[in-house]
Amino acid sequence: MLYVYASLLLHSAGKEINEENLKRVIEATGVEADLVQIKAIVAALKNVNIDEVIKKGVSLAAPVAPTAQPQPQPQQVEAAKPKEEKKEEEEEVSAEGLSALFG
């Protein structure tokens, strides 16, 4: 995301988004610039009209964040407990069987 933010910063300053400018912005933050990522972001933004993308509200690099999972109801939690206990008992029985093999 740092590289996307740096690209947007360059765009808002009216500067060209190229490898050298992007590298300078990244290094100004105190982070060592990754030239592979810089080349990738410059290539990805080459034919993109950033103003149009911003107007449309389309995300360039960030995927949609997952929604929060609903919390299980107390009834669902209670229903899940017996299955877990049963599984633990099965593991103990299988462990006993293995110990019989090795005396």
From TrEMBL:
Signal peptide from the UniProt entry: none
Region: Disordered, residue numbers: 65-103
Pfam families to which the protein is assigned, alphabetical: Ribosomal_60s
GO CC field: ribonucleoprotein complex; ribosome
The keyword Ribonucleoprotein is assigned to this record: yes
Keyword Amino-acid biosynthesis: no
Keywords assigned by UniProt, alphabetized: Ribonucleoprotein, Ribosomal protein
Biological process terms in GO annotation: translational elongation
Low complexity compositional bias, start-end: 65-79
Sample GO molecular function, one term: structural constituent of ribosome
Source organism, top-level taxon: Archaea
Entry-linked HAMAP family: Ribosomal_L12_arch
Role, per record: Forms part of the ribosomal stalk, playing a central role in the interaction of the ribosome with GTP-bound translation factors.
Assembly with partners or alone: Part of the 50S ribosomal subunit. Homodimer, it forms part of the ribosomal stalk which helps the ribosome interact with GTP-bound translation factors. Forms a heptameric L10(L12)2(L12)2(L12)2 complex, where L10 forms an elongated spine to which the L12 dimers bind in a sequential fashion.
Family to which the UniProt record says this protein belongs: Belongs to the eukaryotic ribosomal protein P1/P2 family.
Name this polypeptide is given: Large ribosomal subunit protein P1
Species, as recorded: Candidatus Marsarchaeota G1 archaeon BE_D
